[in-house]
Design brief:
alpha/beta, TIM Barrel, 2 domains, DNA polymerase, domain 1, two-stranded antiparallel ribbon, about 350 residues, single chain
Length: about 350
């Protein structure tokens, strides 16, 4: 009952798209330019309360306060990596669910890793979010607000968000409509105007949604979490493979490239003595032969409920070399934020296990 009451309170303003905002302003019998002023305040100035909207008359600021929430995410734990290049925030939602968002700073980029669900239904054995189980989908506004939160912090430092990877908690294609609506809002030319190619969305391989995504001809980058090159191993690691085995997944991937002419990325978590051998790389190369693609390999981020460990640098280099010998481009990604449990879901699962956690900033 409490959860229903919390979620039925005033709507979150970030759940409005621009057309709905224009309709609202029209219903309130206000000049049309007010919609643009509100939108710019939200998505260019990153104002988080009606009082900050200095371009609006006091009466309109009051109306906004009466009709909308401007904040739904409560930061309850903030961790900074020892090199200060990675920051992870654990948020509480109004219904008590938890999600995580990560900021990664590179020389020229400020990349956010955002969540689309609290928990995840996919059950990938090495993923902390999968170990947590599915709690609920986020609304499009809750997805957007993660970006606004960090955009506001970066704005205060004279910086800005440059890239967004939708690889945090949850399976984005399991919450497809809300995820795409959030991207469209962040892409809007009157707001943040983040180009489509600055987004990368990751899926474990929901074949029908890959086909839908391809048909929509979006310019968003697509990454497939692969992690194994045969059905037996992949099914043991990613249960979704039992429903959409590699034969179906790879046909969908090849059809995607044919339809969109866009390169696919395959994500591969390197696990010591599990999927990191030269022989496995050779098998992967055969699977991807002739496909416009790139493989990102990264030594596994450890989680409490999975015994596997990340591959050594030597094995990672050998894996990469074998792929490249077969003409498959490969990059070894640097593990970021290991000291702050930056693997998605690692803080949230602790919060789920201990709901009395106090706010912590390290």
């Amino acid at each position: 009952m409490v959860e229903v009451e919390l979620r039925s309170s005033k709507p979150l303003i970030y759940d409005l798209d621009y057309a709905n905002l224009e309709n609202l302003i029209r219903d309130w019998q206000l000049p049309g330019f007010r919609a643009r002023q509100i939108w710019e305040g939200l998505y260019r100035n990153y104002w988080r309360s009606p009082e900050e909207f200095s371009t609006l008359p006091a009466a309109l600021r009051q109306q906004l306060a009466e009709h909308f929430r401007f904040i739904s995410l409560e930061p309850i734990q903030v961790l900074h990596s020892s090199d200060r290049e990675t920051t992870k925030t654990l948020f509480n939602l109004p219904d008590g669910r938890a999600i995580e968002t990560v900021l990664m700073k590179y020389e020229k980029r400020r990349t956010l890793c955002i969540s689309t669900q609290s928990g995840c239904a996919m059950g990938c054995v090495f993923c902390a979010t999968g170990q947590m189980g599915f709690k609920r989908n986020l609304t499009s506004g809750e997805i957007v607000e993660q970006v606004i939160y960090y955009a506001n912090l970066l704005h205060q430092e004279g910086q800005s968000v440059t890239n967004i990877v939708i690889m945090g908690m949850g399976e984005p294609f399991h919450n497809y409509d809300a995820t795409m609506a959030a991207i469209d809002r962040l892409n809007h030319p009157l707001g943040m105007n983040l180009g489509s190619r600055r987004f990368t969305i990751s899926t474990v391989g929901l074949v029908p949604m890959i086909r839908r995504f391809a048909a929509e001809q979006r310019q968003i980058n697509l990454a497939i979490s692969l992690h194994a090159a045969d059905d037996e191993l992949r099914s043991s690691m990613l249960p979704v493979n039992k429903k959409y085995p590699l034969s179906e997944l790879m046909v969908a991937c090849r059809d995607y490239v044919t339809q969109t002419h866009r390169r696919l990325t395959f994500e591969w978590a390197l696990i010591q003595n599990v999927n990191d051998s030269v022989e496995t790389a050779r098998k992967l190369a055969r699977l991807l032969e002739g496909l416009l693609c790139h493989v990102n390999v990264i030594p596994l981020n450890p989680t409490q409920k999975y015994a596997g460990i990340g591959s050594t640098r030597e094995r990672a280099l050998a894996f990469k070399a074998e792929l490249e010998r077969h003409g498959i481009p490969c990059t070894i990604r640097i593990r970021r934020g290991i000291d702050i449990q930056a693997g998605c879901g690692q803080l949230a699962i602790q919060q789920t296990q201990n709901s009395t956690s106090k706010p912590v900033v390290i």
